[in-house]
């Protein structure tokens, strides 16, 4: 008896063509080897002085590392770059979240590169106090500037550092200057009145505001307001133009109530739109006028000297803190004292004093 004939269905799966590899295994191996290979300090210095952005990025990563083993190598790179640094204009830009700092910096940065400037943006993103993570999305916001050959954007997490800047922003400035960038922009976290650390590392401090953020009474608050060398009312476009002009008038009135600056400079408020680019050129003209005045009366050089002394002391404080918390005996004693404090067996002050005494012995 013949076996029944098999019916061939159109739904049967046919053998297809094998898909080629989507990547080259040799390329993957090469990339992995490059990642495993750590460049020496001299390699990084040579790359930076040759204006290599990859070397600059790797050097900043090294400087930002919290690994104690990387400290001496990072210091060697910084010292090697120092003779080629200090030839830029450092601009700090701050403002409350939502004021449009990233959009303004992109418009401002593109304007500067059109003038032949080489611009480095050190953008500091806030870190979560819960997960300790950070989005680092500034490159996404500055999609036009990031493609500019004369621009470099480096986002960094603020970590536990207060004052709106990252732990190693100061050192990153030196590396960017040695890499040939003549205009350094530091975009801060934007946390309000306490955001003052950036003032101690820049030549010009720009405060961004938006209309409806306060009147003259808000404007004369101490702290970040009296540190500003200029105030710019951002988002002055569309239906917001008249409100921005009114805010400009109110802030100009408030600025007259502050004591005179040591530089002899009188801060002013202006308006701009990062969207239409109106007022962007005027912001750069204001900064240029300030620099001309500060350099002519020697304030620019004196301020740089004071800042260097300030950051020497800050580095000492940071190093002492790091050494204290990484000391093997202290690590163990801290846990013991924590439990004693939690159980009310020892006061927080007595616990701290005993730890410090043990450390310095």
Relevant terms:
single chain, 361 residues, alpha/beta, seven-stranded parallel β-sheet, 14 helices, 46% helix, globular
3D structure, described in words:
The protein has a 7-stranded parallel β-sheet with strand order 3-2-4-1-5-6-7, sandwiched between helices. Helix 2 (41-49) packs parallel to helix 4 (71-81). The N and C termini lie far apart (102 Å). It is of the alpha/beta class. 33% of the residues are buried. It has helices at 25-36, 41-49, 53-64, 71-81, 101-114, 138-141, 169-178, 216-219, 224-227, 241-255, 280-296, 299-325, 328-342, 348-360, and strands at residues 89-94, 119-125, 151-157, 183-187, 204-209, 230-233, 269-271.
């Amino acid at each position: 008896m013949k076996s029944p004939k098999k019916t061939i269905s159109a739904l049967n799966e046919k053998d297809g063509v094998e898909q080629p590899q989507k990547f080259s295994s040799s390329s993957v191996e090469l990339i992995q080897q490059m990642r495993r290979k750590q460049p020496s300090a001299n390699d990084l210095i040579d790359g930076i002085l040759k204006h290599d952005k990859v070397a600059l990025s790797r050097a900043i990563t090294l400087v930002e590392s919290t690994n104690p083993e990387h400290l001496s190598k990072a210091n060697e790179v910084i010292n090697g770059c120092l003779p080629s640094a200090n030839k830029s204009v450092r601009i700090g830009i701050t403002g409350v979240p939502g004021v449009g700092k990233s959009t303004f910096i992109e418009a401002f940065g593109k304007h500067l590169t059109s003038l032949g400037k080489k611009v480095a943006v050190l953008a500091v993103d806030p870190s979560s106090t819960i997960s300790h993570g950070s989005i680092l999305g500034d490159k996404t916001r500055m999609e036009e500037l990031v493609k500019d050959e004369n621009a470099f954007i480096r986002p960094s997490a603020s970590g536990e550092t207060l004052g709106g800047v990252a732990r190693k922003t100061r050192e990153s400035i030196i590396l960017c200057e040695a890499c040939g960038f003549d205009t350094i922009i530091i975009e801060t976290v934007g946390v309000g009145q306490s955001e003052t650390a950036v003032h101690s590392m820049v030549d010009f401090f720009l405060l961004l505001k938006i209309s409806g953020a306060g009147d003259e009474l808000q404007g004369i608050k101490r702290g970040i307001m009296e540190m500003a060398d200029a105030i710019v009312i951002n988002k002055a476009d569309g239906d917001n133009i008249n409100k921005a002009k009114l805010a400009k008038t109110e802030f100009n009135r408030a600025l007259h109530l502050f004591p005179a600056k040591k530089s002899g400079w009188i801060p002013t408020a202006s308006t701009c739109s990062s969207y239409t680019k109106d007022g962007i050129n005027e912001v750069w003209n204001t900064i240029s006028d300030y620099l001309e005045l500060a350099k002519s009366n020697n304030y620019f050089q004196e301020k740089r000297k004071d800042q260097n002394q300030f950051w020497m002391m800050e580095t000492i404080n940071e190093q002492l803190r790091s050494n204290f918390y990484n000391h093997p005996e202290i690590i163990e004693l801290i846990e013991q004292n924590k439990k004693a404090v939690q159980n009310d067996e020892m006061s927080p002050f007595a616990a701290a004093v005993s730890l410090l005494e043990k450390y310095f012995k």
